[in-house]
Write a structure and sequence with these properties.
Number of strands: 13
CATH class of the largest domain: Alpha Beta
Helix content: 40-55%
CATH architecture of the largest domain: 3-Layer(aba) Sandwich
Mean pLDDT: 91
Largest sheet: 7 strands, mixed
Low-confidence stretches: 6-11, 13-22
Radius of gyration: 24 Å
Number of domains: 2
Number of helices: 12
CATH topology of the largest domain: Rossmann fold
Amino acid sequence: MNRRRLLVLALSAALAPLTASAQRRPARVGWLSYLSDPDPALGLLREGLRGLGHVEGKSYVIVARHANNDFSRLPALVDELVAERIDVLVSRGPSVDFTKRVRDRVPVAFVYSGDPIAAGFADSLGKPGRNMTGMTFMAMELCAKRVEVLKELLPGVKRIALLSNPEHAGELLEYRVTEDSARRIGVQVTRYLVQTPQELAPAFAAIRAAKFDAILVFPDSLTLNRRKEIAVLAAETKIPCLYGWTEFVEAGGLVSYGPTLSEGFRALAVFTDKILKGGNASEIPIEQARSISLTLNMSAAKALGLRVPPALLARADRVIE
């Protein structure tokens, strides 16, 4: 073996550990949130990644950007994250809408309350096709079940006021399914649209003046972020109110039927993990929330003078006293 050949082999052997070390650099996980830091969802993502065997600082690092509820900042924050050479862009709620324009450069994993197809994130749930994947909390079958729960809670219900945000992707279809489900059991649904926090109090005042039997609040980022205010308004209105997520009842609401958001944010780690391991976001199916809970707040029921039917109480997954 000649001297040049020996030098090449020796140099290759010396560089091999450095090359392997470079290949094992921590993955860079970009986090985009419209909320302020700390965002509880980011903590749950970390928890989920830890449960999958990841060690922050070794197998991955978080590069986070928070808009502090200023949506005008989100486009620039997205550009900052892409400039950080992230391996995956992870986002939640309405922040996800701002990631679409960079999905050709970086895969996106999301948790979203609306319909990802209507939002333009995917061609279908089974095969997204647009370099975006994750979880949605919206499922049309929940619309019918929520009407059924209200009917069981209030057997004499005839008129329901529906509070919803028309800008929420999939809201119109969700409303139509709710209206059809209500009509089949002889209940009328009237839709009240709110797009800003300032519109909540007038909407509840109009609902109270119209003397509805019950209120159904569609869950989205607007109503979630104002859930305590909504619970107070519902109590003042003295009309039983049903919500779509457990967090509304934890904030003082009467009853909810649907997922718990914390479970979805932990599950976000699964999609992030798949992408980091080489999975194609365009081919990883978008999932709907699997765990659905019926949650009752007995203090809110007592304040309304409402007797919860024993059968409904027995079926509740959680009862808050």
